[in-house]
């Protein structure tokens, strides 16, 4: 039996797990930046996604609404926006690490 496909599959799982662990471990930004990001989330994002983040012009940003959505895809949406929709790119205002932290916060329900 050729163990090549099995070995490649195991390596793929290891890489995916490492990627997940890296995203799951997004370190919170130092104060006062963390407070600024929370304010941006609730006021700027909340202007479209609803002040309680339960939806409005934009879709809900609740843990239930984000369940099953890949974190890297959500980060890309935050940073690059969605062309042809009202979702603007936030890259000029956020680093990738900050966007990862916000996504983690939203997915875990800690953005209240």
Question: What is the element layout, followed by pairings?
Answer:
Blueprint: H1 4-24, H2 33-49, H3 63-66, H4 71-80, H5 96-108
Helix pairs in contact: 4-5
Describe the structure.
GO terms for molecular function: electron transfer activity; heme binding; metal ion binding. Pfam families: Cytochrome_CBB3. The chain is an all-alpha fold. It has one domain: Cytochrome Bc1 Complex, Chain D, domain 2. It is built from five helices and no strands. About 16% of the residues have low confidence.
Individual helix count: 5
Q: How far from one another are the termini?
A: 54 Å
In the predicted model, the low-confidence regions spanning at least 5 consecutive residues are: 6-23
Largest sheet: none
Element order, helices and strands?
HHHHH
- Predict the CATH topology: Cytochrome Bc1 Complex, Chain D, domain 2
Strand content: under 5%
Round the Cα radius of gyration to an integer and report it.
17 Å
Instruction: Give me the CATH architecture, please.
Output: Orthogonal Bundle
Number of domains: 1
GO molecular function, one term: heme binding
Protein name: Cytochrome c
Domain Cytochrome c: 30-110
Pfam families: Cytochrome_CBB3 (PF13442)
């Amino acid at each position: 039996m050729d163990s090549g496909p099995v070995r490649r599959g195991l390596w793929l799982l290891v890489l995916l797990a490492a990627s997940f662990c890296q995203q799951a471990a997004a370190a919170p930004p130092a104060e006062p930046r963390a407070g600024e990001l929370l304010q941006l989330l609730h006021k700027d994002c909340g202007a479209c996604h609803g002040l309680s983040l339960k939806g409005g012009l934009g879709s809900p940003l609740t843990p239930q609404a984000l369940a099953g959505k890949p974190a890297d895809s959500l980060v890309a949406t935050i940073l690059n926006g969605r062309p042809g929709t009202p979702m603007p790119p936030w890259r000029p205002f956020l680093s990738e690490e900050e966007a990862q932290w916000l996504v983690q916060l939203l997915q875990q329900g800690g953005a209240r």
